Amino acid sequence: MKGIYIFLMMLLFASPVLHAHEPSFMSNVYGREYRFLNGKWNVIIDQYEHGKTRSIYKNRKPQSNEQFYEYSFEGGLRLNVPGDWNSQLPELKYFEGTVWYARHFQVDSIENRRQFLYFGAVSYRCNVYLNGTKAGSHEGGFTPFQIEVTGKLLKGDNFIVVEVNNRRTEDAVPALVFDWWNYGGITRDVMLVETPEVFIKDYFIQLDKHQPDMIHAEISLSEKVSEQVCIEIPELKILHNVTTDGNGFAKISFHARKIVRWSPDDPKLYKVILTSGKDRVTDEIGFRNIEVEGTKILVNGKPVFMRCISFHEEIPQRQGRAFSQADAVMLLSEAEALGANMVRLAHYPQNEYIVRLAEKKGILLWQEIPVWQDIDFEDKDTRLKAQRMLADMIFRDRNRCAVGFWSIANETLPSEARNSFLSSLLEVGKSLDTTRLYTAAFYMARYEKNSGAFEMKDDFPEQLDVVAINKYLGWYHPWPVDPSEVAWNVCPTKPLIFSEFGGEALYGQSGDENVASSWSEDYQAKLYRDNLEMFKHIPNLAGISPWILFDFRSPYRYHPVNQEGWNRKGLVSDQGYRKKAWYLIHDYYMQIKNNVR
Ligand code: GCB
């Protein structure tokens, strides 16, 4: 009796951990056979969210003289896919609700192949209907998903409808308030992917955490079948065969003695070819080691100071989401020009074009999920959503060696519920990838008069490889003492990254460098000089990341003259002009690069 009671209690209080070992989409979609379903889609704005009741996804047309329908996807508004809706139509700038997207597409042959609809991201939740019937749904604005449509496609004309909703809710991730624009829409590529019956669904090929020439590969087939898989890295003259077990899973480790490791100075990538049965997937993969030794972060065994910068997935000049290869070029070129060797992709997984281009350019990446401030840590569904987002971010990008850091949260307050939520995220993350460094950004470090140092009363960071601090000294927080005398005693035995600091300035505005409300480049520059002075005295400092590269749109930046709905902490203005602080950071990064620090 007692045993049953204990068992029931365990069930009741067990923390829900997602069994996330199963990827929900195929990895490396751009290495598959696909066609884009991008382009102009017809849309209906559904302010009252009544379209589902009216079954508008059926796209009915009158069949008799008596019939009529009070909607039509044809002849109305059109939006570009990919793309947010806010920046495309003035009436949608502030819209939060439902927009129905629809388009036709032709299919010539549907024999002997499997077909999937693949969405890079839809913000924030959606239902997908194919030829009048619901085909799937998804929640989470920054991770991909796929819907199998084998047997549901028609030869000839097909009609797809996506009901997209971006309403903010308390149980969502992010939740009700966040400091960036709530863009809605089909914001990333849509593809129709074709595969053989059995295909290579997922793989994880990477260097051993510590050894410089040992490669581990894990492969999962789409079906629970035993089949031979061949892994080839032609440039290294590597070719191995391995047979999957009854679960369609195979694992193999092998030496690659002549391997040149990927690093920011030499971003070497190798062509990797996987074949199994009728399937063949090609990727470009780099190999590197990233680990922590004391307070240092080592890349390929050498300490590297992280000259980091953040950006949102936003093109400020267009006032819209970034989604293309050209957008990735614009964002990353400016990070490169600053002298950065790392980018923090704030505050959610960004599109694959950015990740892949960063890898080609030799820029390390910090990727995170939008667990940002006021998340409902008590809500079990919210926890599952965050776990799914983390798993999907890792599944999509764990073959990208540029990603050195997985961050599980930004600015959370200590509590039991928070700790349990974040621990469950770490558990999910580590079940999928132990080769990266796990981190999170915290903002509750306080200056303690007695010790004369900033300290943080939070035990959770002890569980992380790298601790990150957001602290706006000179902006949200006055300097407690002269910057040259500020000491830091936060997780002194671990590497500490200053993941955010900065202040706002309106480009072109001059003013008193001591008055914050001058919103001047001069004030911002002085603030940066002060912070750079403070950094000299933080013994475990392993990197810094000014907040932020570009001014970005934020609904709660109300100042009518200096902000106009923009967070002005950018080193670069919304028009692409560099502010004074940009030059300070650029000089600082150049000095570090040349080992002057
Ligand atoms: C923060 C947040 C970031 C905000 C920034 C700010 O601490 O992490 O998302 O945009 O401050 O500008 O206030």
Tell me the number of helical segments per DSSP (H or I, 4 or more residues long).
7
Outline, from the CA principal axes? globular
Which fold does the CATH topology of the largest domain refer to? TIM Barrel
Bound molecules: (2S,3S,4S,5R)-3,4,5-trihydroxy-6-oxo-oxane-2-carboxylic acid
Low-confidence stretches: 1-19
Question: How widely separated are the two ends?
Answer: 66 Å
What is the CA-based Rg, rounded?
Answer: 25 Å
The number of distinct β-strands equals 37
Percent helix range: 10-25%
State the secondary-structure class.
alpha+beta
Q: What's the story with the biggest beta sheet? A: 8 strands, parallel, barrel
Identify the CATH architecture of the largest domain.
Answer: Alpha-Beta Barrel
- Report strand order across the widest sheet: 23-26-27-28-29-32-34-35
Full CATH superfamily name of the largest domain:
Glycosidases
Beta-strand percentage range: 25-35%
CATH top level of the largest domain? Answer: Alpha Beta
What is the number of domains? 3
Overall mean pLDDT: 95
Written description of the protein model:
Helix 6 runs parallel beside helix 7 (580-593). Helix content is 17%, strand content 31%. The protein has three domains: 32-194, Galactose-binding domain-like (Jelly Rolls); 197-291, Immunoglobulins (Immunoglobulin-like, Sandwich); 302-593, Glycosidases (TIM Barrel, Alpha-Beta Barrel), CATH 3.20.20. The termini are far apart. The relative contact order is 0.10. By secondary structure, it is α+β, with helices and mostly antiparallel strands. (2S,3S,4S,5R)-3,4,5-trihydroxy-6-oxo-oxane-2-carboxylic acid binds at residues 179, 347, 410-411, 443, 470, 500, 547, 567, 569.
